[in-house]
């Protein structure tokens, strides 16, 4: 397992070096080409969609925190049970970010984000019909899986579509993570 992290897994070092060099050359060439151009409507739209998707996901993550008192009262949950219920979505987000988001390199970012939107959306809708705290916790975990896949992938999409000079790119890349606070502020108080 350690060999994978230090460069010894799968390919020999010469193959790995050639692959990394050719990929770096292509990425540098593409970045150089995009740096000289202003952003198109398509690029702005892609970044805007990433912003909205992440904002809705941040809102969703905060909903359980804001409804915790009424959920706890409805099902007569102890503090520990409520803690597990609130953590289910966050655990799902972690698992989704670590194990689902890397699939984007295999199947593409757009298909993965769309799949994760469907998973998160179905999990959210099904959460409304949960009959027990365990059922709600499992549905929040599933919703978190989708959100985790979306978050990691959308940040990469944002970075790929942001063009212009180094300062402008960093400003635009920072735009999407700012949606977390926007989504949290839209949550009910």
UniProtKB/TrEMBL annotation:
GO molecular function: carboxylic acid transmembrane transporter activity
Membrane topology of this protein: Multi-pass membrane protein
InterPro entries: MFS, MFS_dom, MFS_trans_sf
Cell compartments where the protein resides: Membrane
Chief location bin: membrane
Keyword Transmembrane helix: yes
Entry's Gene Ontology cellular component terms: plasma membrane
Record-linked Pfam families: MFS_1 (PF07690)
This protein's UniProt keywords: Membrane, Transmembrane, Transmembrane helix
Keyword Ligase appears in the UniProt entry: no
PANTHER family referenced in this protein's UniProt entry, alphabetically: CARBOXYLIC ACID TRANSPORTER PROTEIN HOMOLOG
The protein's name: 4-hydroxybenzoate transporter
Taxonomic classification: Bacteria, Pseudomonadati, Pseudomonadota, Betaproteobacteria, Burkholderiales
